């Protein structure tokens, strides 16, 4: 029974749950960025070039006689750059929000600490 209890404590820790949420959101965000690159950026920016090369999409960009798919690589590279930049902006914003949170004022001494300080002071006075 101890194994399952340890696993439950591990699984519900804040960091693990945050990581799981991040992975799920990251996967969904990756799909959005892929669609942005393939459906909006590529057609808007590269359409004139693709028409001159007589290609339907960037994935068809291949050097004749080779199996190297430069177009697929360029598409993946553009997607990566957009995802990395968007994540950079998100993390920068989150860090800014964390820094802006006011620091809590240190709490005064607890009752136990007050008693210990009083005992310390009495012992100092007695030994002096």
TrEMBL record:
Q: Name one Pfam family in it.
A: MscL
Q: Does the keyword Transmembrane apply?
A: yes
Q: Which PROSITE patterns match?
A: MSCL (PS01327)
What is this protein identified as? Large-conductance mechanosensitive channel
Q: Specify the protein's topology with respect to the membrane.
A: Multi-pass membrane protein
**Highest taxon listed in the record's lineage:** Bacteria
Which InterPro entries does the UniProt record give? Answer: Mechanosensitive_channel_CS (IPR019823), MS_channel (IPR001185), MSC/AndL (IPR037673), MscL_channel (IPR036019)
Q: What is the lineage of its organism?
A: Bacteria, Pseudomonadati, Bacteroidota, Flavobacteriia, Flavobacteriales
Q: Which GO terms describe its cellular component?
A: plasma membrane
Family note? Belongs to the MscL family.
A single Gene Ontology molecular function, please?
mechanosensitive monoatomic ion channel activity
How does the annotation summarize its subunit structure?
Answer: Homopentamer.
Report the source organism.
Chryseobacterium taiwanense
Subcellular location(s): the record lists: Cell membrane
Keyword Transport in annotation: yes
Principal place of residence:
membrane
